[in-house]
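Per reviewer request, we include the raw input and output of the structure prediction for the construct analysed in the revised manuscript.
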Amino acid sequence: MLFTRQFEVFRKVYAHHKEYEPYFGHYKSPAKVAVIAPGSWPSGEAAQEYRGIQLMLLESHIQFDIIEKSQIAVQEKALSKYKVVILPEISSVDQSALASLKKLVNEGVHIIATNRSLSDHPEILDDLFGAKIKELNHDGAGFYLQPDNKKLFTRFDKQSLLFRKFNLGLYDFDGAVEMQLPILTPGIPGPPEIIGGHEPTGFHAVGIKNQNSGKAVLMPINLGKLYYLHGYEQHKNLFLDLIDHIFPEVNQLIRTNAHPRIEAILQNYALNTPENYGNEAKDGMILHLVNLTGFSGNTYFDPLPVFDTEFEIHTEFKPKRIWSMVSEKEISFTFQNGRVTFKIDKVQEFEGLVMER
């Protein structure tokens, strides 16, 4: 439903799109991470897990694409270009998708599956992850995770425990190469002077199995839902450390000091004009920025201006020039060893930065 009070916002956004129409729509993503969507209109726990995983990646400015679970087999060739494929609460897929996932990981694509992912296929859990379900649905309230491997969990150098809530699947990872994050029992609740008493359960929250050149990572915990609902940064950092572990180059595409609530979308583009129909996206790159600092998690307020945002982006070409869609001014930059570096003085509501080839 549309009301006249919204017209000014629509006028501003649509005027921007109309002015720069050739720069929208003809894109090719440079992302090396793919997230499998649980459906076209996901709902319930699967949707919360899915949205939480997306939120972690967006706040970290990790570029990713979305492919619906029904398209895994159809898009097998497209999926093979990614370094990491994430399955958030994808409990069941068809047989052709299972075959594609096995082929992808054997060919070097890393897979991260969370919570009850592939739980309807116990033979695949064993084959891909070396895992067997002992207790699929287990209340994790009061339990703790222990990120004791500081070489892997580098963001936990000053923290030894991490609280849990919601589902905490108990799996046997005897067939895995690595078991990480020991699960500890609930201890004594209360103020700091009396809490403690957490004991190892013998279970782990992460199992990793090597499959030729690919790694298959299983986390039978609803980390995405937990972050989506509560937003505790260390739950996100747990996930980021695991991505770093299997794909250390994950942050090579974009390096930035941008605020986590500045959404950054990088695309290769070709001018969206009739003569370019069917041509590859080789006219340059576009970095779209959306300022979401005004979003409270429940409603939207005016965003805060963000100043002095720096970017270092991997490109396959030295840009002829870089310019802003908002100010229409050129932006100074440096280029060295396949990386372009520049700074944005101010991001208000949105921005589009065009790097012409």
